[in-house]
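Section 5: illustrative case.
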């Protein structure tokens, strides 16, 4: 992609300015406070917008920093971009109440949609983090931040074997983790539900066991009462009454015999009368004893009937208790069977657990494959960084080491030197090499323009000349913002063609091809 033209309606200190840029190297010259960083920020705002922060953060955000003081009703501009042999026009209005973006292909008149990702396609899918850490280098930003390390890891995980280079490793892992957390949450809820169900079943079993024990105690008590009722003896009075009746009958029989003998022997009348009175008394006593015996027998029969009825009631109660015990026993057995089945189901591996294990395995596989891909791409990235850095240092440093945290080190012919022991100029050369190598790897489909804002302040002329030669051969559009003439002087001396754009003077663009 190449920036052909930029028209700034109103952005920071730039007002109604138009700039044209050519292929290859463009030197954008302006004195300090001349608007170089403003133009740099304008490019970024056009590509990614200027979202307004909230609260205290809104005081120092990019929107507030570049909001025009004069004529704030115009806050935006236009870019003309060449991509794939076609020209596109990008319009943006940054005003917070009328934020709008329009993308038009001027070659065929097609109206594209920024919100649907058409602009992202032109940018090769480069995110803001990638843009800030590769092709766009601001003042005092020669060293990358740690976000580039994550961008590289995400890219490395999906770059090889035709996979989507935009795959975000952390996003994919987080999606798997989120799904697994949701599944595990459901498993935990189901586990708690099952545990509560088991507790209720255990309480129900204990309740029925207690009821069973009570029924058994009552049944045993009724059984003992029935046994005691069967062993009851007849009343003692009935036996005594029968003996008395037999004795009285024997005495009466003896009296009768003596009375008959007295009459036969001619006993006097007085004696007979006495015997008669005695006989009447004996007879009355006999009948009284007999009557008493009948009453006692009636009482005994009544008692026996009551005892029999009591025994029957006890027996019926015992039989009822036995039936209830049998029913309770069956119910208890069913409850125990259901409880054991519930325990087996709780102990069994559920489909949800299988799914959770599968998600965990998928995450582990993703990490393992990501590490393998990172190793492959990391080696290629290190090789490209080493090649660029070797060119920039005229072969003084042969190889650069880079770990997953973006910690750098260099190798000479004799020793390894950590990056933090190098001079500021050499360190910036290493990070410049890292930016350029990462840009080649991450933006291979659509090379983006390199926008360098005062990044060569720590370079001596030898280093700067090596860097300019590399930029001239990289095949990309390069925009170098500077307040000095060193870049232009060295470009002339090296015979490298370039175009010069001045930020001061006429509102018309300044275009030179020297």
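Designed sequence:
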């Amino acid at each position: 992609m190449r920036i052909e033209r930029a028209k700034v309606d109103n952005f920071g200190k730039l007002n109604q300015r138009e700039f044209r840029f050519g292929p290859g190297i463009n030197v954008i010259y302006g004195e300090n406070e001349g608007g170089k960083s403003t133009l740099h920020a304008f490019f970024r705002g056009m590509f990614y917008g200027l979202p307004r922060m909230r609260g205290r953060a809104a005081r120092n955000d990019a929107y507030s920093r570049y909001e025009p003081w004069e004529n704030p009703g115009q806050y935006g501009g236009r870019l003309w971009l060449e991509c794939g042999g076609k020209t596109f026009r990008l319009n943006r209005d940054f005003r917070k109440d009328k934020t709008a973006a329009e993308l038009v292909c001027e070659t065929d008149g097609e109206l594209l949609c920024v919100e649907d990702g058409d602009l992202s396609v032109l940018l090769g899918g480069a995110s803001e983090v990638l843009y800030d850490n590769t092709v766009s280098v601001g003042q005092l930003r020669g060293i990358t931040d740690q976000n580039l390390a994550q961008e590289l890891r995400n890219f490395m995980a999906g770059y090889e074997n035709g996979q989507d280079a935009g795959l975000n490793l952390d996003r994919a892992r987080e999606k798997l983790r989120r799904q697994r957390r949701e599944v595990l949450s459901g498993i935990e809820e189901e586990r708690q539900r099952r545990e509560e169900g088991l507790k209720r079943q255990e309480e129900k079993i204990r309740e029925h066991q207690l009821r069973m024990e009570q029924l058994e105690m009552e049944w045993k008590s009724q059984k003992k009462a029935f046994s005691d009722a069967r062993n009851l003896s007849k009343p003692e009075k009935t036996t005594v009454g029968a003996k008395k009746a037999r004795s009285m009958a024997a005495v009466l029989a003896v009296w009768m015999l003596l009375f008959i003998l007295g009459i036969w022997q001619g006993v006097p009348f007085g004696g007979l009368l006495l015997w008669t009175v005695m006989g009447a008394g004996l007879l009355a006593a006999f009948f009284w004893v007999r009557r008493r015996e009948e009453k006692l027998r009636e009482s005994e029969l009544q008692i026996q009937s009551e005892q029999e009825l009591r025994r029957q009631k006890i027996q019926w109660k015992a039989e009822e208790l036995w039936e209830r015990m049998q029913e309770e026993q069956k119910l208890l057995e069913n409850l125990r069977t259901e409880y054991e089945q519930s325990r087996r189901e709780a102990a069994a591996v559920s489909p949800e657990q299988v799914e959770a294990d599968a998600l965990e395995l998928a995450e582990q596989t993703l990490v393992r494959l990501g590490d393998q891909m990172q190793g492959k791409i990391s080696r290629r990235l290190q090789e490209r960084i080493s090649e660029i850095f070797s060119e920039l240092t005229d072969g003084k440093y042969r190889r650069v080491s880079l770990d997953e945290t973006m910690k750098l080190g260099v190798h000479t012919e004799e020793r390894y030197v950590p990056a933090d022991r190098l001079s500021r100029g050499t360190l910036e050369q290493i990070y410049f090499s890292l930016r350029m190598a990462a840009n080649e790897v991450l933006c291979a489909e659509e090379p983006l323009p390199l926008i360098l804002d005062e990044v060569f302040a720590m370079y001596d002329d030898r280093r700067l000349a090596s860097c300019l030669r590399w930029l001239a051969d990289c095949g990309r559009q390069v925009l170098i913002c500077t307040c000095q003439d060193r870049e232009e002087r060295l470009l002339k001396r090296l015979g490298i063609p370039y175009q010069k754009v001045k930020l001061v003077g006429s509102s018309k663009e300044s275009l030179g091809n020297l």
